[in-house]
Amino acid sequence: MAHRLRRYAPRAFRVGVVLAIIMAVPLAGVAWFSISAVREEEAERARVTDVRDSIDHLVALSDLRTRLLEERNWTAAANGIGEIGLSSEVVQELVGVNLADEANEASAEVDRLVADLALDEVRAQLDVIRTTDTRALDESNLLYIDLERAIGEQASVMFEDLLDDAAAIRDEGELVDALRL
């Protein structure tokens, strides 16, 4: 029996396999760049969302400052007429405004904003201002002004941080200019 020797020819790769291997390298590069671009866009979106949330918070702080001064004014007016001996009914007849109701509405709006913003320190300071009925109008007025200024200082610091965050966003030049207005 004669053994036949088989000759093994080197395996030839099919053309399709060779092309697939050749194409895999640039496709891997495209995939890597695409994934990188998607991640950059997600990070950009997160920065924009943070800036938007900061702007919303600053607007709410500004509204709180305004409402706080409104509460101060209505409360001072309501207390002031009492000190000079006028009743709220007489004032309402003369002016058409119930000062006590206006003061209560202003206080409720301040309370809502303080709760929305979760400002526990402001809540504590408001409690001190509101609970002392025997406080002189001038002293009460100063406490309201001090509280409003403290909130304003907090807003200023937040605004500077917001400008820094906005500067990290693409096309930030227009955004930062708009924020400065």
Spatial separation of the terminal alpha carbons: 101 Å
For the secondary structure, the number of strands is 0
Question: How big is the Rg?
Answer: 34 Å
Stretches where pLDDT is under 50 for at least 5 consecutive residues are: none
Overall shape: it is: rod-shaped
Structural class: mainly alpha
* Range of helix content: over 70%
How much of the residues is beta strand, in percent?
under 5%
Oligomeric state of the chains? single chain
Mean pLDDT: 82
Q: Topology as H/E string?
A: HHHHHH
Q: Main sheet, how many strands, which sense, barrel? A: none
How many individual helices?
6
3D structure, described in words:
With 181 residues, this protein is mainly alpha-helical. 82% of the residues lie in helices and 0% in strands. It has helices spanning 15-83, 88-95, 99-117, 120-131, 137-167, 172-180. The model has no long low-confidence stretch (mean pLDDT 82).
Primary descriptors:
mainly alpha; 6 helices; single chain; rod-shaped; 0% strand; 181 residues; 82% helix
Helix and strand arrangement:
Elements (H helix, E strand, L loop, with lengths): L14 H69 L4 H8 L3 H19 L2 H12 L5 H31 L4 H9 L1
Helix pairs in contact: 1-3, 1-5, 4-5
Short description:
This protein has 181 residues and is mostly helical. It is built from 6 helices and no strands.
